[in-house]
Automatic annotation (TrEMBL):
<keyword id="KW-1133">Transmembrane helix</keyword>
<keyword id="KW-0813">Transport</keyword>
<feature type="transmembrane region" description="Helical">
    <location>
        <begin position="35"/>
        <end position="55"/>
    </location>
</feature>
<feature type="compositionally biased region" description="Basic and acidic residues">
    <location>
        <begin position="14"/>
        <end position="29"/>
    </location>
</feature>
<feature type="transmembrane region" description="Helical">
    <location>
        <begin position="502"/>
        <end position="521"/>
    </location>
</feature>
<keyword id="KW-0406">Ion transport</keyword>
<feature type="compositionally biased region" description="Polar residues">
    <location>
        <begin position="1"/>
        <end position="12"/>
    </location>
</feature>
<keyword id="KW-0472">Membrane</keyword>
<dbReference type="Pfam" id="PF03189">
    <property type="entry name" value="Otopetrin"/>
</dbReference>
<feature type="transmembrane region" description="Helical">
    <location>
        <begin position="169"/>
        <end position="191"/>
    </location>
</feature>
<feature type="transmembrane region" description="Helical">
    <location>
        <begin position="67"/>
        <end position="86"/>
    </location>
</feature>
<keyword id="KW-0375">Hydrogen ion transport</keyword>
<comment type="similarity">
    <text>Belongs to the otopetrin family.</text>
</comment>
<feature type="transmembrane region" description="Helical">
    <location>
        <begin position="333"/>
        <end position="354"/>
    </location>
</feature>
<dbReference type="InterPro" id="IPR004878">
    <property type="entry name" value="Otopetrin"/>
</dbReference>
<dbReference type="GO" id="GO:0015252">
    <property type="term" value="F:proton channel activity"/>
</dbReference>
<feature type="transmembrane region" description="Helical">
    <location>
        <begin position="146"/>
        <end position="163"/>
    </location>
</feature>
């Protein structure tokens, strides 16, 4: 009789197959659960985007009313779920058995609080602005900002408390609600970006019209805000001030929703994940921040930051004066070109030090790092696109003047700097911290020492004496080895200090390159060169699509550089 290979002689079940089958079933269920929640979130996002498109393309009030009602309902559902989730995880200790130490670092949680404060101030001013027109606006325009303010408060508390949680029960429901929350944040982000782009486009239309440029302005349309019933209701001084102020708070609301969406995505990936907390290291403000203050990187970065702020103010003032416009624009371009060249040099220095300072690479599964890489690369595409459009326009422009040369150099350096910085950041995120290497080396040395003592203890006395005699080096040779080790340690510390200077310098540079476009700098519009080549409508579409990705790239790159600085 042929023996069944699935059973042993004792009749016991095959224990070696059970864990494999169980793990496979869990992985299959995880994929199915993620697919279901992904479908729910994508449908919510696509439906809200369709409504939002109707709001900004059709002059029909019913679309705006429907969109605001839908967004208010979705935010209310998310508020109720977040409150329930925080209460449920607090009452049930078995809900969260594992935590991801690499998710939600302290700098990201502090950042979402700071951006949340700005978003909350903007929403409060919007409430005050709409309250001025209580008699001639729909109730949804007043209700929606109130619910959004409550949404910001609850979500900030929820992310601070739960961003590291790896939920182990009710996995399907948790994943679905997290994806709905992610879709709501992305919808608010799209809405805010669209409103900001429309505002800046209308300002640029008025600017080009006032300056009587050579641009073809036959397709310029009047401000859509003037078509609203603001004049009918009689906007007072208070509402005008509120509108002017909350327009400048758009960048805070944009970054808040992006930060929240990134943290929610990591939480979604961590649902059902079992992590060995002892095997992971902490990505936070660690010893690298406290041990050494990189004065060179700090002072040079602050010099670029302060100079950039001065140049930005001069640029904004010069735009209103025709006699100073060319000078302020040329100076602003010179600052960009010089800063980008220095940033490229800093990135090259960092990459060279990476090649000289050999370390092991971390290839373990890490959702936070994977998301950082994907966001960096996707956001770079927007800046690449607008730079290539600008290069084609400058090469085709006749005559080729100073502004054409500056714009061409600026676009080329922008592509080079983004490419070098992506290589630098992504490689840095995969390098193991020095503390891990030191601990691993110490652990290996300790094991070798124990094995050596055991072997020596087993030897006879003559063998041990001969061993000691062979290992008894002259005094000068031992001193030489000690000096070599000291030089190696000094060289390693010097590389670490240089890397911290590079990290801090690039962090401050990316910060100023986020501030300038986020708060209204549109230098590729003010020259009129690209507008003359592509036309106002086409260039406005290109800029409004690509520029938000470029702004997001700078903030995300600054956050990644801060993380690298904290780990160095």
């Amino acid at each position: 009789m042929e023996e069944n290979p699935d059973t042993n002689t004792n009749g016991d079940p095959p224990q070696d197959r059970t864990p494999i089958k169980q793990e496979k079933e869990e992985n299959d269920w995880k994929k199915g659960s993620r697919l279901l929640s992904g479908l729910v979130g994508s449908n919510v996002l696509l439906f809200s985007s369709a409504l939002l498109t109707c709001v900004f393309t059709e002059d029909i009030d019913i679309f705006e009313k429907d969109f605001l009602i839908f967004l208010t309902i979705m935010m209310a559902i998310c508020i109720l779920w977040m409150l329930f989730q925080m209460y449920f995880t607090w009452k049930n200790k078995n809900a969260v058995l594992y935590k991801d130490c690499q998710a939600g670092p302290i700098w990201m949680r502090v950042g979402i609080i700071l951006f949340g404060i700005g978003a909350l101030v903007m929403t409060s001013l919007k409430i005050a602005y709409t309250a001025e027109f209580e008699d001639c606006v729909t109730p949804t325009k007043i209700t929606q900002p109130v619910i959004q303010a409550l949404f910001i408060l609850v979500q900030t508390c929820f992310l601070w408390v739960s961003c590291k949680h790896c939920v182990q029960i009710y996995l399907n429901a948790t994943r679905c609600f997290l994806m709905v929350l992610l879709a709501v944040n992305l919808t608010i982000w799209i809405l805010t970006v669209t409103e900001e782009s429309r505002h800046h486009t209308n300002e640029l239309q008025a600017y080009l019209y006032r300056n009587n440029s050579e641009t073809n302005i036959s397709d310029l349309s009047e401000d859509p805000d003037e078509r609203e019933n603001v004049n009918i209701c009689g906007c007072k001084y208070t509402c005008a001030v509120n509108k002017t102020v909350f327009v400048y708070l758009y960048p805070f609301n944009i970054e808040y929703n992006l930060f929240a969406a990134a943290m929610i995505y990591i939480m979604w990936k961590n649902v059902g994940r079992q992590i060995d907390e002892n095997a992971s290291f902490h990505h936070g403000l660690g010893p690298g921040v406290r041990q050494h203050i990189p004065l060179l990187g700090l002072f040079t970065g602050l010099a670029v930051l302060i100079t950039g702020l001065v140049m930005f103010i001069m640029y904004e003032v010069g735009r209103e004066n025709l006699h100073k416009q060319w000078l302020s624009l040329s100076t602003f371009y010179f600052f960009h070109v010089t800063s980008l060249a220095v940033m490229c040099l800093a990135n090259v220095v960092g990459i060279v030090i990476f090649k000289l300072d050999k370390r092991n690479m971390d290839n373990q599964k890490n959702p936070s790092r994977t998301l950082d890489m994907v966001l960096l690369l996707l956001a770079t595409v927007g800046q690449y696109a607008i730079s290539y459009y600008s290069i084609i326009a400058m090469v085709s422009t006749v005559p080729f003047g100073l502004l054409c040369g500056l714009t061409l150099t600026y676009s080329v350096l922008m592509i080079i700097q983004h490419s070098l910085q992506n290589v630098f950041i992504i490689e840095g995120l995969h390098r193991l911290p020095p503390s891990n290497l030191l601990n691993a080396h110490q652990g290996t040395s300790h094991l070798r020492t124990v094995d050596h003592h055991d072997a020596v203890r087993r030897r006879s006395m003559p063998e041990r004496e001969s061993r000691l005699s062979l290992t008894n080096h002259p005094r000068n040779e031992r001193i030489s080895r000690r000096e070599t080790l000291t030089q190696h340690i000094k060289s390693h510390l010097k590389k670490r200090k240089t890397m911290k200077d590079v990290y801090l310098f690039l962090f401050l540079c990316n910060l100023i390159f986020w501030i300038m476009p986020a708060f209204g700098a549109r230098i590729r519009f003010d020259t009129g060169l690209e507008v003359n080549f592509y036309g106002f409508s086409l260039w406005a579409i290109i800029t409004n699509i690509c520029l938000p990705f470029g702004i997001f790239y700078r903030m995300h790159a600054a956050a990644s550089l801060l993380e690298l600085y904290s780990m160095s």
